[in-house]
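Session log. Operator J.P. requested a structure for one protein chain; no other inputs attached. Running the standard single-chain path with C-alpha cell output.
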Amino acid sequence: MTSANLTRDETAARAAGIRLHTIDVELDLRGARDADAATFGTAATLAFEADVDATWIDFIGASVDAVIVNGEERAVDWDGARVHIDDLAAHNTVEIRGTGRYSTSGEGLHRFVDPLDGEVYLYTQYEPADCRRVYPCFEQPDLKARWRFAVAAPADWQVLSNGAEIDRETVAGGVRVRFAETPPLSSYITAVAAGPYHRVEGVWEGPSGAVALGVLCRASLASHLDADEILDITRRGLAFFGEAFGLEYPWGKYDQIFVPEYNLGAMENPGLVTFTESYVFRGASTAAQHEARANTILHEMAHMWFGDLTTMRWWDDLWLKESFADFMGAHAAVVAGGFPDAWVTFASRRKGWAYVQDQLPTTHPIVADIPDLEAAKLNFDGITYAKGASVLKQLVAFVGEDAFLRGARRYFAAHAYGNTTLDDLLEALEAECGRDLRVWSAAWLQTTGMSWISVERGADGALVVVQTDPRPHRLTVGLYGFEGDRLVRRGGVDVDVASERTPVPMPPLSAGVDLVLPNDGDRTYAKVRLDERSTDAAARALSTIDDALARAVIWAALWDATRDGELAVTRYLDVVARHAPAESNAALLADALAHAQFAIGHYAAADQRDALAAAWLETAWSALWAAAAGSDAQLAWARAVGAAASRSDRRATELAEILSCAAAAPAGLPLDPEVRWNWLTALAATGHAGVAAADAELARDGSSQGLTAYRTVLAARPDAEVRAAAWRAAWEDETLTNDHLDATIAGVRAGGRRELLAPFDAEYFARIRPVWSSRSIEIARRLVVGLFPASDSLDLVDAWLAEHADAPGALRRLVIEQRDGLARDLRVRAAQPRT
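Structure written below.
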C-alpha cells in the first residue's frame, strides 16, 4: 500500500491528536489559459492544536517548495503524498507552499479547453480524497476546519468557492478574489471553480432573508441552459428542506455550476454544487430527463444537511449522507418538486441498480467495512445509495414521516457541524418514534443480500407469501383481474412478513384474479417473482394497468427473471415489443428498451443473437415511425434504433439517407446532435460509415460533445486494425481525458464484434495490475471495467484471480464483479430454450 492510500486506523489516530481550527488557501490560476499550462501555485496555512509530537499533512502534486512551522522554515519531508511534520507545539500554524497539477481525469482541479471558442474552464472534484491534489490539508472527513480561500485568476473570469466573494483586487496578470470564511467543513466538500462561465442569477426569499442563487455553465452552452426551471426547483427545494428539517439552509449563497468532463452526476459542495453538464440538454429531452435532473438537484440539496452539516466520521458511514440524500431527493421531487412519478423512476432505476449490486459476490452491508480510501472509492455504489434509500423508505413507513423528520431535526440540532456514526442517528430517531430500532438496523443496515418474494396459490385459492433469506417486510399483495383486455386492480392485502412462509389473511381467491403482485406499491426492498399465471397475464396486458408504480414492479420482476435465466430472452423481448410502445411513463419506457438491448447482447444464445438483433431493430424502427410526433416516446425509440442498429445493418440505408437529408425523418423528430451521433455510431459499427462521414458530422457539431462522439465513431469501425489501435490507445495514451477514454472504450466495444477483441484477452489480464499502479483510480477503474473481455470462458479471469491474491483489494473487487457478470451471461445463455 502506498502512502496515498490512507487507512481508517491511521486517520482515526491522527484525529485523536489534532484539533483543527482554520485553513487558509491561496491558489494562483492566472496561467491557466496558457496552451501548455500543466501546473498551478498552491499554498495552505493550517492552524491546529496538537497532543502529539508529529503528524502529516496530505498533498499530492508536482512539488512541495516550502514548509514553515510556527514561523520556522523546515526541511521538506514529503513522500509524494504526505508532508511529515515533527516537533509540534500545543498550538501550531503550519504553512505549506507548493505546485499542483491540473487534472484531465476529473480528479482534483480539472482543466478543460472548449474546442468551440478555445476558452479554459476549471473546477474541482474531491470526493473522497482528492482535495489534497489541489492544496495541502488533513484529508479525512472528521477533521473539519473553517476555510478561507483566496484565488488569483484572469480578470474577466468568474471565480467561485464555497463562500461568497468578499473582496476583489487587481494583481499582475489578473485579479485576486477572496471569499468569506466557511463554517466548519470537511476537506472533500470544499470547492473552487474559475473560467468564463455564463451565469444566471436568482434569489430565494427565505424566512430569514434572501439567499443569492446562481446557475452557471460554459459560455458555449448558454443558449441551452434552462435556468428558469433549475431555479424554480432550487427555490422549491430550499423551502421544503428548511421546513422539513427545522433548520434553514445554513451555507449562505447557493451556486449550481454545470461542468464538462465530470465523473459524477453531481457533488454537494455547500454554496457551490457541481453537476455534470449532461444535464444541460443540447437537444430534445424527455420528461424523465427533466425529472432526473430535478431529483439530482434535490439530492444534492439534501446533502446540505445530511453530509455537509452532519458528516460521517469515516467512510464506513457513507450511507449517513448518500442513502438519506437518495431517499430525500425522490421524496422531495414528489411532494415539492412537481414530479409525482419520482417513486416510479426510483423503483425502476435506483432499486434496479441496488438489486444488481446486491447480487454480486462483493456486496456489502449498507453500513460497510471501509478500511482505506481505495475501498471507499468503490463504495459509491448501488448499496450505499439505492439500497440504503430503499430501506429508509421502509423505515419512514414504519415509524411515520412526522416522527422520522422530528428525529432528523434532533439529529441536526445535536450534531450540527460535527461528525456522526450510526448510533447517533438511531438514538435521535428512537427518541422521537419511541421504538427500538436496533433490530431493524441489524436486519437491514448490517446485512447483505435480499429476499426473493413470491406468492404461491393453493389449490383452494389460498395465498402464501414465500421469501428466501427471511427479513421483516411490510408489503402489499396486489390482486388484478381482466376486464376485457385490461388488467384492473381488484384490491390488495397488507401483510407483515418475517418468516419463509406467511399465509395471506384473506378469503380464498376467486377465479377472477389473474395477476397476483407481491410488493404492490414497491414498499419493501426485495426481488419479486411472479407465478406462472401472473407472468402470463403480464405478458398479455402489462401496459393496460393504470398504476405506473405497479407497472414498474412488474417490469422489474420480468427483467430480474430474465437476468436469472428463468424467463426466456425471446419471451422478454416479446413483452417489450408488445407493451413498450404503449408505456406512458418515459423512465419505464427507456429502461425497458435498454434492458431489451442488453438482453440481446449478453443473455441471448449465440446462435439466436443475430436474428433477435434484427427483429429488435425492426420493432424499434416500427415503433419510432408510429410514435406521436415530438413525443417522449418518439425520442426514446429514436435512441433505441441507434442502439439496435449497432448490431444489425438492416436499416443502414434508411438511417444514412435520413442523416444525409436524402430522406425525411419521422415527423416531429428533431435530428439534434445526440440522435445524429447515435445513429452515425451505429452505421460505423456495422461498416456503413467511415472517416469521411465522421468528419462531415464533426463539421456540423464541433463542440466538446461532438469531438467526444467523433472519437467513438472512429473507433467503432469494424476493422481489426482500427479496433486494435483504439484498444491500445485506451491503455497507453495518457493524454486522453476521462471523457475521451470513455469514448474510445465505447467505440472499441460498439456492436459487440467479439471476433475483433478476442485476440486481446490475455493482454488485458497482463495490463490491469500495472495500470492500477501507474494511473489514478478513476482512470484505472474505467479501463478495468470497460475493457473486460466478454469471452466464452472464465478460465483467464479465474487464473488471474488465483495468481494475484495479493493484488490491491479494490482492483480484485472490480475483477471479481466483472467475472460475476460474465458468469451470469454464460449461465443465462446456456439456459435459453432452443428452437
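Operator note: Residues 279 and 293 are 6 Å apart (CA to CA).
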